[in-house]
Amino acid sequence: MKNGMAIDKKAVARAARAPLEAYYKAVEATGYDGSTERPGDWETNEELANAIWKSKYVSQHLDWLYVVELVHIVLDSNPPLKPDAFAEELEKLIAATADQRDYLVIFPLSFKPAMSLSFLGAPKPVVKSKVIGRFTISPAVSSSKALNKIVAKHG
């Protein structure tokens, strides 16, 4: 599994067994068409959430509503699945969508006024790169070449 994105498929299959049976029973005649509320308790199913959250990757990188959307995609894009197949498809989808979750955010911490007389002794906001938790705060740069160097550090 890509970068340790594996989920505990046996636990997920056990937790998904009852919701899957109820879901497929409710939509067996016509399938889910999106015009009504989705059958089942996918959003509030604690047993399923706990089973999926056993994955270190999922617990650190995804929020529950995103995981529920992935569950809905698995339900909508496959024929009726057995619990083991459901867990397998969910794990594949988590790995397949990983590239969509990596992003770099650039935002200014402060703006330099156009007409300023640099106050002597006033501290500069950021002088060198600093890591705070999962975030890296870098000093301002004056060119796109310098910005590209910072972006390259983050892959």
Written account of the structure:
Helices cover 45% and strands 4% of the residues. It has helices at 9-27, 46-52, 56-61, 64-76, 83-96, 144-153, and strands at 130-132, 135-137. The chain is elongated and about 65 Å long. The mean pLDDT is 81.
- Quaternary state reads single chain
Uncertain runs: none
Number of helices: 6
Strand content bin: under 5%
Radius of gyration: 23 Å
Helix content: 40-55%
**Count of β-strands:** 2
Gap between N and C termini: 21 Å
In sequence order, what are the helices and strands, one letter per element? HHHHHEEH
Strand order of the largest sheet: 1-2
Determine the structural class based on helices, strands and strand pairing: mainly alpha
Shape: elongated
Q: Biggest sheet, in brief?
A: 2 strands, antiparallel
Average pLDDT figure? 81
Topology at a glance:
Elements: H1 9-27, H2 46-52, H3 56-61, H4 64-76, H5 83-96, E1 130-132, E2 135-137, H6 144-153
Antiparallel strand pairs: 1-2
Helix pairs in contact: 1-2, 1-5, 4-5
Summarize the structure in short.
With 155 residues, the chain is mainly alpha-helical. Helix content is 45%, strand content 4%.
Brief descriptors of the model:
155 residues; elongated; two-stranded antiparallel ribbon; 6 helices; 45% helix
